[in-house]
Write a structure and sequence with these properties.
It comes from Gambusia affinis (Western mosquitofish). This is Sulfotransferase domain-containing protein. It holds the Pfam family Sulfotransfer_1. It is a single chain. This protein is α/β, with parallel strands linked by helices. It has a domain of 387 residues: P-loop containing nucleotide triphosphate hydrolases (Rossmann fold, 3-Layer(aba) Sandwich), CATH 3.40.50.300. The N terminus is likely disordered. It is built from 21 helices and 17 strands.
Length: 602
Amino acid sequence: MEIYMQLRVSVEEVGGSPPTVMDITLTLGIVALDTMTQMDYKYSLLGSTVNDYHKRPLLLQVDNTPMNLFAVLEVKRDLTRRSSTVGCKIRLYSFLFVLAIMFLIMASYVLTGDRKSLLLTPSPYHLNGLVSPGPFAFNLSSVGDYAHIKLVVKSIKSKVEFRTQRQCPDRKALMRSDPHMFSVIPPNFLPGIKNPCWYEEFTGNITTDPYKTNLYGRYSRRFRTVFQHLRSTFHHHLLHRNRTLYRMRCLPYFYIIGQPKCGTTDLYDRLRLHPDVKFTTFKEPHWWTRKRFGIIRLSEGLHDRYPVEDYLDLFDQAAYQIQGELIANTSGSPRHPNIIIGEASASTMWDNNAWVYFYDNTTEGEPPFLIQDFIHALQPEARFIIMLRDPVERLYSDYLYFGIANKSVEDFHEKVSESLQLFEGCLMEYTMRSCVYNTTVNNAMPVRLQVGLYIVYLIDWLTVFSREQILVLRLEDHAFDRKETMHKVFDFLNLGALCVQLDFFSMRCHFLLSSGIPLLLGAGRSEVTELFVCFTGPLSKEIESQITRSPASNTRRPADKNLGPMLPITKEILQDFYKPFNEKLAKVLQKESFRWENNSEL
């Protein structure tokens, strides 16, 4: 028998030219066994986590039996024996030649520092299976293999442990890891206003485009449209003091940080109705977790990193209104006092997957810095809103949301089973917290089990922020009584007035609360008019019912609803898996409803 090793190397030239792909085939001679039948074999690469990936050879698994070959990507059987001396020499020389070529390619990338196409650690976006499964391997295609899946869950639960204390990095270590960000954002903000803002000296030319290099505008058509409006009025908002120009910069006063498929979009849409709440143009800029590391789409690897200035540009429109408030205050007639800015990226609470590429691994597989460490160093008084739901239903909704082909309840069951096996395999070597933050495991799992482990992330957030700075809500409570939920949010943010959407006829009118100018978008047609009216003081029952009657945002698509609920066996397995995590969450929050023991589907 002969084994052909086929390597596919992608080389991206400097300057943005298209990548060159080389197919290299190596032949290794191995004595065939008489007992082997004539068939093809499928192999999977096994290894530990991304931290050990480059420290040891990868293992080749043949019918669950590991062999110490360095790497095999394709295996075929050849019945023809080639035993000539000339053939062996040719293969030997070919092997040495290919090794030399590969060495030169690696050396060139190391010397040039190019990490876009050839990462020195395995890319989490093109994984086939770098994580070894646990001891309870089972047939993933069989829904009826219930006993084996239960063994996997039992093994996972036996290794669940919660660390109450975490060693937080000091400010100097954080500044060394990102000195530019700390040089741009000052340690203190302007007094007398609620939102964190400051004046930054503007050293550029007022005739040039201040948003020309913003990477959000490069990759987003929506931001290009907004920047077109902002650049036309940019120089009007510059402040002149002692022959120096200044521009106002702001950070968010509060963040909606999680979790995905838990109602954050609906909460965001309702908060936008308040005249004192301003957001970015669209809901999720994902700067803290992805864009500042150069992640645009999870399938594309690393791009240019977004500087903090690009992130601050997103709040310019709100900053102009806050600046207008300050100017109005000096004249004795303030408008919209206490304007606050919000940011809503549902990845902020949990997504630290980029850490493995940018921070030294000195913490036994755990990230040395987390997102909240940086936010706390810059904004120790920031506030955070978390919306959660039953993690079992969240996972199914997450599966249905992403546009994969051939979705079915059976396919969901198989993906759950495979993800459980990968997570259990990680726990054989590492702690639970290491596996939750393990980039390789997270990206290898076909469904995002780890996102539903709410308590692991919440404990880490509570190590740097106080309990009073974090509001945790349940989607189930919000769906049942939106009035109560919104009152909690407004009280948490110290907001007073509420904004109500009323319906009229004859023309369509959007009332711009920030300027008080009605903008007519169409007239002469019989259609519903949207008018936003704001009230201060207590709300009548009629007005409150207008708010709560609004339809929920970002609901499940009709095609996904047709699939129906998940299989009962899948639900039972997931409930068993999430149970210890939910119990700990309910204990920390001192609210039994976070166990989700008697819950209806949403």
